[in-house]
Design goal:
- The protein is built from 4 helices and 9 strands, in the order E-E-H-H-E-E-E-H-E-H-E-E-E.
- By secondary structure, it is an alpha+beta fold.
- Strands 1, 2, 3, 4, 5, 6, 7, 8 and 9 form a 9-stranded mixed sheet that branches.
- Helix 1 crosses helix 2.
- 32% of the residues are buried.
Length: 184
Amino acid sequence: MMLRTERIDLRQWTDADRAPFAGLNGDPEVMAHYPRPLTPEESDQLMDRLAARIREQGFGLWAAERRSDGQLLGFVGLQHVPFEEHYTPAIELGWRLRRDAWGFGYATEAARACADYAFAELGVRELFAMARTANEASRRVMTRLGMTYDPADDFRYPPAGQPGSLDYVLYRLARPGQDSGPAA
């Protein structure tokens, strides 16, 4: 399965994606809001997990390829939130793009297509997106998507007191024509 937008193909991962994905995941600026950049081996393991989820579920965090030149920009897609929190079980809308793809609207364009797919094809009633508190760029994407923010939804993951616990904000997007509620 593939989703297409005007400028982006969201598709399954291939071996040709390994080197550019490792470059993205190893970039300290791209990974500034994550605990640390990934090694090439860790990036390969992540890509393998992402590809497996797509095969198993039919959706996931897809490889985002620019249609004009076939370049891998990063990933955009949907995933089941892999931990327990006050809003789970839930489906998250997520993205990570290489630095030279920032500021062109790619994340918003591709995330909008993923949201449309989740609502129309998967029957999801509400999507969630999370980001580190200081990640203003991702927060702007969430706002452009029409997602809503309530500071009461902020949380720490892993939970406070555990090693590596970090602050996150949570944004919500209800299926058009429906009030927010539990995810499908």
